[in-house]
Hints:
- The protein is α/β, with parallel strands linked by helices and about 400 residues long.
- It is built from 15 helices and twelve strands.
- The chain has helices at about 5-15, 40-45, 60-75, 85-95, 110-125, 135-140, 165-175, 185-190, 225-240, 245-255, 255-275, 295-300, 315-325, 355-360, 380-395, and strands at about 80, 100-105, 125-130, 150-155, 180, 200-205, 220, 280-285, 310-315, 330, 340-345, 370.
- Strands 1-7-6-5-4-2-3 form a seven-stranded mixed β-sheet, sandwiched between helices. The protein has a five-stranded mixed β-sheet with strand order 8-9-12-11-10.
- Strand 5 (about 180), helix 8 and strand 6 (about 200-205) form a beta-alpha-beta unit.
- The longest helix is centred in the middle third of the chain and has 20 residues, at about 255-275.
- It is globular and about 75 Å long.
- It starts with 6 loop residues before the first helix and ends in an 8-residue tail after the last helix.
- The mean pLDDT is about 95.
- Bound molecules: pyridoxal-5'-phosphate.
- Pyridoxal-5'-phosphate binds near residues 85, 110, 113, 185 and 207.
Amino acid sequence: MSRKFRPATQLVRGGLSRSHHGETAEALFLTSGFVYDDAEQAEATFKNEVQHYQYSRFGNPTVAMLEERLALLEGAEACKATATGMAAVHAALLSHLKAGDRLVASRALFGSCHWIVSTLLPRYGIESVFVDGADLEQWKGALSQPTAMVLLESPSNPMLEMVDIAAVAKLAHAAGALVVVDNVFATPLLQRPLELGADVVVYSCTKHMDGQGRVLGGAVLGRAQWVNEVLLPFIRNTGPSLSPFNAWVVLKGLETLKLRVDQMCRNAAAVADFLAEREEVSRVLYPFRPDHPQQKLAMAQMSAGGTLVTFDIRGGKDACFRFMNALELVDVSNNLGDSKSLATHPATTTHMRVGAEERARLGIGEGTVRLSVGLEDVADLIEDLAIALDAAAVAQPRAAE
Ligand SMILES: *Cc1c(COP(=O)(O)O)cnc(C)c1O
């Protein structure tokens, strides 16, 4: 189609490729392979003389609809879907980097991204350097020498720290680096990294895109030349391909992404304001609140504050666990972006493995809770949180041994 549609339209219509049956919904091509009319067509396909699906590790019509929809939504030239968000991050990094290269990353990364940068890359002779993502001086220092890649997450997990994407992209490009942004927390609706100067955007489709807790998925988006020449051979030959079934679930999830994310943002903002008024809470982090240390930057590069709220409960781990265990509506779960509200204690779950020293550097305390705000009635959520905060404040007598 020649007309340029807005995101809400792309989410419903983008990439739709109907079969000769004229089905309304996106068709699910749950097939591993494809057949040819004859041996000549097979030969021509493998010679790239004709366009024909070969094998679902390389490409699949349902997965292709998802890739096209995500590319249109992001304003990217090309997209490759992957089995998980981590497969997307891993493929984006490992397809591009080689021994002797250097990568600079913001320290506040999703746990497994942190592991890839700190532990996996050095094994292959790739130097990795962490900086505090909010500190432009540290980026300047780290990018004062030739660098192959920059990886950043904004807002970050779990402390919702912002990186100035446009400023870092400028420094990174001067150092020769490709800039990869993990945009999971913002979603393609709230933040547009490519327009801010990033080269590659990665997603976990598991989070808001499915958004209903069903499937894992991931995506890498960027320029056509990089995707086709660098990323695609890596994915075709190493095989982190997305199941057509999961692609189909995510396609249907995308149709309601804007409705869900808009409402979840409204709920999250209200929950953050409620928490900030409570005595049991010593600190609330929500990007659009005036007490967020980077509110100005958040408002400049995002269109809403997001669906996550992070806060500290007074009284450390004990009080925090009393709070979490007293939640009736909100579930204790390390997932996020779901229509169900989910709370996690990063110090003992998602960020247990980074170690106490790194947690302290990231600002993750024993009383820190990350709350992924869902689609329940916000009054019910606030009631649930209020009851649980009351429970946190009351020290429970120790059960007799
Ligand atoms: C969940 C997540 C990932 C990894 O995605 P999976 O689908 O779980 O593999 C990467 N980055 C961020 C910010 C995430 O929230």
